[in-house]
Every structure is written in C-alpha cells, then in structure tokens.
Q: What sequence folds into this?
C-alpha cells in the first residue's frame, strides 16, 4: 500500500529539521576557527555531484592537515535552494562552506526563492564538471542520434535528470531546441540526485525514465561496469580516457552548458574571515589529494577567488535566467 502523502511530508520535514539541528549543534561545538573545525554543506542528497565535491574537499583538507576536523552535511531539496536558505540564516558563522554550481543558479532562476547567491559570501570557483547522456545497457538507442530520431517523432518520451531548472534540465532544453523539438513539449522528469536517477534508469517499473542526463561522475561506475551506456558528453573536448563523443562531434554545438563547482560561505562574516576561508580553499586545491580528485573525476580546474567569483555569479545568474526564458522553462 502506498504511504499517505501527509506521512511522507512529515518524515521529510522531520529529516530536514533534524539536519538543521545537527548543523547548529556542530557550529556551537566548533566555534569560529575555520582551521580547527569546518562544516562543508552539500545542498543535495548523498551520492550526487555536490556531495562528491564536498567529500573530496573533506579528504584533501584532512589528509594534508589544512583543517583539523571537517564534517560534510547534506541538505537536499529544490536545486540546492533549501541549503542556500539555511546557509543565509547562519550569518557570521565563518567555519562553514557550502558547495554551489550551475544547478543552483538554474534553481534560483526557475523557483525565484527569497534567498539568492547575492545573499551569501562568495569564496571561490573551483572546477568544471561535465554532463553526459546515458541509457540502460539494453536500451534500443545505441547512439544519441537513435534517441533523437524517436524523440522528434514523440516529444513525450520522458527525459530524466536532477532538479527542475538545474543544468540537466537546461541541457535537455538545449538539445530539444537543437533538434527541432519544442522545449515547451519537453517531458522532463526531475530526481533528487544522481543516485535516484540511476535507480530510475535501471528499473523497468512504470514511471521510470529511459534516458538520463547527469554529471559524468554520477554515472561513471555504472558506465564502467556496463550497466549504463553513455551516448554523449557535454564538453568542449573529449574526456580523457572516456570513449564517448562530445556534442560538437555529433553536430549539436548549441548544447554547451558546463557545470561549474564553487563554494560560498554565510553572510555577515568579516573581510578577514572571507580571506581566510579563500586561503583554506586555495591551499586545498593545491594539494596532491586534490590533484588526484581532479584527475579521477575528470574535472577541469577553473579557479576564481572571491572578487572574480562574485562578478561571475552575477553574470552567470543573468545568463541562466535568459536561457530559462529562451527555452520556455521559466
């Protein structure tokens, strides 16, 4: 028997409240010395791209002795905007970082929340991550062109990805526009994270999706293990060690969104505290552990410090807002 919606909502509410309580308790215990103890918030479920960045940072900070104690906390929901709102309420807490990126910018543009990235403190942009289209290994679509031909005939084919308005959704809209499918007819099915999406792709149950879009690392193990097949990557150049065509290779150069990764801090911290957090993050990205993470996850470095990152966030929000409107997704 299906669980009543009211019960599920109650469980979710209790889970989120419990997570916030843990964060507040951690802050009390840690004090304000970011090098002694740090909380890194991944504003999504465990197992997705933001969680991966947070845990790679945690490992690099710990193993190289940059921060004494580092904990990662997940606050999922609404393309990261729930985590963003929670971060904004933690004004002055200079021992906290939150991972952000293109998905959150899209979520802000789509959902128009009361809190935006201009309400928190920019720290740094770290790297770029790349999207991939994937299908189950037994899918009849051997190539992206196979899918496109069927999609053009039947735009109601569901396409799975992360949060509505996020980069997966935008990439689906860009491809629709490239191949002559009306973006307004796009049947996009959002998921809470890469883990939930892969379960849907691998299931034969009613309501699951036959094709998904996510960060390469969300699908990597299943692609390597032969359970998923990658049809295309959204990257300016082929990914090293990955024998999958790029969108440019396939003639779809207009599908070009890159999923950047960055970190922000709560509002209300001092300039010195902002500079210290930026120094910690920069030191982290210079470690051997981080070098290994970049290579392993096939990221591309794209460092920007606080001032440059702040300017980038404004221009990126304008760009994504315009794209959402152009694709009729806002």
A:
């Amino acid at each position: 028997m299906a669980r009543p919606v009211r019960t599920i909502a109650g469980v979710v509410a209790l889970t989120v409240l419990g997570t916030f309580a843990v964060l507040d308790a951690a802050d009390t215990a840690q004090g304000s010395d970011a090098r002694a103890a740090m909380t890194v918030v991944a504003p999504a479920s465990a197992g997705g791209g933001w969680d991966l960045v947070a845990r790679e940072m945690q490992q690099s900070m710990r193993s190289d002795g940059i921060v004494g104690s580092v904990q990662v906390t997940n606050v999922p929901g609404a393309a990261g905007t729930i985590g963003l709102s929670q971060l904004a309420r933690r004004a002055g807490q200079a021992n906290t970082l939150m991972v952000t990126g293109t998905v959150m910018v899209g979520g802000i543009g789509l959902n128009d929340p009361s809190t935006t990235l201009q309400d928190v403190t920019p720290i740094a942009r770290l790297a770029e991550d790349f999207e991939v289209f994937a299908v189950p290994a037994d899918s009849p679509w051997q190539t992206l062109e196979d899918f496109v031909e069927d999609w053009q005939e039947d735009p109601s084919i569901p396409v799975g990805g992360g949060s509505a308005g996020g980069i997966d959704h935008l990439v689906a809209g860009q491809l629709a526009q490239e191949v002559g499918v009306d973006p307004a007819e796009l049947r996009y099915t959002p998921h809470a994270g890469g883990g939930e999406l892969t379960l849907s792709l691998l299931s034969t149950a009613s309501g699951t999706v036959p094709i998904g879009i996510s960060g390469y690392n969300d699908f990597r193990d299943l692609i390597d293990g032969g359970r998923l097949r990658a049809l295309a990557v959204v990257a300016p150049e082929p990914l090293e060690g990955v024998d999958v065509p790029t969108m440019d290779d396939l003639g779809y150069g207009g599908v070009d969104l890159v999923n950047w990764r960055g970190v922000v801090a709560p509002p209300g911290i001092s300039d010195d505290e902002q500079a210290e957090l930026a120094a910690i993050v920069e030191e982290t990205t210079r470690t051997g552990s981080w070098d290994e993470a970049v290579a392993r996850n096939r990221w591309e470095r794209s460092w920007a410090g606080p001032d440059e990152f702040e300017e980038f966030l404004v221009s990126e929000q304008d760009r994504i807002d315009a794209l959402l409107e152009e694709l009729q997704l806002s």
About this structure: The domain at 5-129+261-326 is CATH 3.40.190.150 (D-Maltodextrin-Binding Protein; domain 2). Confidence is low (pLDDT under 50) at residues 1-31. The chain has two domains: 5-129+261-326, 131-234.
